[in-house]
Amino acid sequence: MTKPLDEKIEAGVEQLLQQMTLGEKIGQMTQVEKNSIKPGDIAKYGIGSILSGGGGNPEPNNPENWRNMVNGFIEESLTSRLGIPLIYGSDCVHGHNNCVDATIFPHNVGLGAAGETDLVERIAAATAQEMMATGVRWNFAPAVSLPIDLRWGRSYEGFSQDPAMISEMAAAYVRGLIGGDMTTGVLPSVKHFVGDGAASWGSSTRITAEQWELIESDPTLANAKVGEFMMDLLKIGAWQIDQGVSEIDEATLREMHLPPYAATIAEGAMNIMVSYSSWGGFKMHAQKYLLTDVLKGEMGFNGFLVTDWEAIDQIDDDFYTAVVACINAGIDMNMVPFNYMRYIETLTEAVNKGDVPMSRIDDAVRRILRAKMMMGVFDQPICDTPLSVVGCEPHRELAREAVRKSLTCLKNENAMPIAKDSAGLLVAGRHAHDIGLQCGGWTIEWMGGAGAITSGTTILDGIKEAVGDTAEIVYSEDGEFAGAKAKTAFVVVGEEPYAEGMGDRSDLHLAADQVEMIRKVRQNCEKLVVMVLSGRPIIVSDWIDEVDGLIAGWLPGTEGDGVADVLFGDHPFKGQLRYTWPRSMGQIPLGTDDGDPPQFLPGDAL
Ligand code: BGC
Ligand code: BGC
Predict the structure, then answer these.
(1) For residue 604, what pLDDT is reported?
(2) 140 lines ligand 2 (CB under 6 A)
(3) CB distance 445 to ligand 2 below 6 Å
(4) Of the four listed, 116, 300, 361, 590, which is most buried by Cβ atoms within 10 Å?
């Protein structure tokens, strides 16, 4: 299963390792957030990697500034004593999504619905090209999570609820990123190891017990401490699941959550990101059995393990204890991200005291250098991919193809295809004409955002272009059409953008004002088609009988014209459900039986 090691690379790694001081080794094991690194420290400490977190953008945010920023950091690393190039990492989870004007593809939930490995591979290759044009050689993707509880804010990062399918899609994604032998591609980070999608409601450890207590007992003080925005989200369920505890037995863990790791390792994945979640009484970051015995031992993983963002800090209140536990458990690189001097000093002390063996440090550095050598960064630290590939036409065309293939038709009572010349098509809903809403979280900012946050085509723009002069399109953001009557109305509703635990929600019903809008528009048309833009199935049982057509549009990204391609019948619906779609909140998490059948089952689609 594991690819054999290359002798020349291994010899090169050993030779370099021989020359390294303890300080230089620990430097390689350090990944720093780009705003936190002090000028001169990359060269001084031989820092192994710099990253952009979600929204970690240069100012102003454009492809050229990205390239200058990233290459500047790499150039500094070349001036270190041994000149080991750093690699720059970013979450390009649906395209180079932190970068304005890059192509934004559908989130994984949509790619899973499309269900084509070849498409996923081409998307990953295009993403890699756009990244490389700006010097970014490390992608914190693909997520191979299997979301069990749809209230989880990261549900959209999962391709499917079927481990075999996730494995196939993730393997294709890794192939596309690597692009042959990795010298012409980027380093994937398969995440989050392991069982992140199995965490239970109420088990998140992100907000501490004391913080919850404060929120309950003194909301005013809590408000002052955590901020109004966060307080509002906490009230509707934020941080209940994400970073929680996966209460599953080992057989289930191995059967449901481990297979995508084997599949991606077989494709040559050389980096895996560890999960914030816990299993078997340990946080994954201190889970030696799974990290070292199972992953590196049993499964033969030769690459390196990176922590999640500031995750070491969650292991123990005492930072020294936390660092020792994580490194000894098998962590190779720490995404610090801020206070790197504290980490460097602490790990140095731990090695000097013998609490972390030198053999463990050498093993970690070997793994990091091996990946870097496989990427060819010693020969060519600065990429020469032209900037013009960022957001280029062929990539946008590919994203549009992905959008139309991901659309999943769940109901159609003679409502679609819509005739292009059907007199006066009504289009309603903010989501029909908003780039930010159609992209979702992890777009320009960590949480994403509404509005024209980057370039692209809204769904409404696409409809107008498809129809041309043949018919008039009347658009209303709130579904107010003042008595107008039309044959067909198309209403786009959905969720607001979110990411991670900030998107955990106790209730997955559509917002009341959006249901009201659907009912209002119903009065204006003969046929009503509703499209839902969401990162997960939402509850539709209270209004589905009132509509003639229902499409799950997922989170399509910047190329909204893919919707019109299918709506008017130029292309057929292709998407299939890969998640069980609950009829009520009582059917969540997956497998909870409330006596009724689910609304839809995997494989359902018209
Ligand atoms: C960063 C994200 C990161 C998160 C973790 C944010 O500030 O932008 O990338 O995942 O913090 O808490
Ligand atoms: C997320 C990771 C992400 C990292 C860096 C964390 O908060 O859990 O998925 O790769 O931040 O942005």
Answers:
(1) 86
(2) yes
(3) no
(4) 361
Looking at all shown ligands, the one closest to residue 54's CA atom is 1
Most informative mutation of 189, 275, 309 for ligand 1 (most atoms within 8 A of CB) = 309
- 3-state SS, one letter per residue, for 532-594: EECCCCCECCCCHHHCCEEEECCCCCCECHHHHHHHCCCCCCCCCCCCCECCCHHHCCCCCCC
- Is 500 in the active site? yes
Q: Closest-lying ligand to the alpha carbon of 444?
A: 1
**Structure confidence by residue, pLDDT tens digits, 274-316:** 999 999 999 999 999 999 999 999 999 999 999 999 999 999 9
Q: Using a 6 Å CB cutoff, which residues line ligand 1?
A: 53-56, 309, 446
Which residues are paired to 305 by β-bridges?
A: 272
- What is the set of domains in the chain, with CATH numbers? 7-204+239-388 (3.20.20.300), 407-587 (3.40.50.1700)
pLDDT value of residue 1: 66
Please indicate whether residue 554, judged by its CB atom, sits closer than 6 Å to ligand 2: no
Would residue 64 show up in a list of annotated catalytic residues for this protein? no
Which pTM does this prediction carry? 0.98
* Spans in the chain with pLDDT lower than 50: none
User: Is residue 417 exposed (0-12), middle (13-18) or buried (19+ Cβ within 10 Å)?
Assistant: middle
**Per-residue confidence (pLDDT) for residue 502, from 0 to 100:** 97
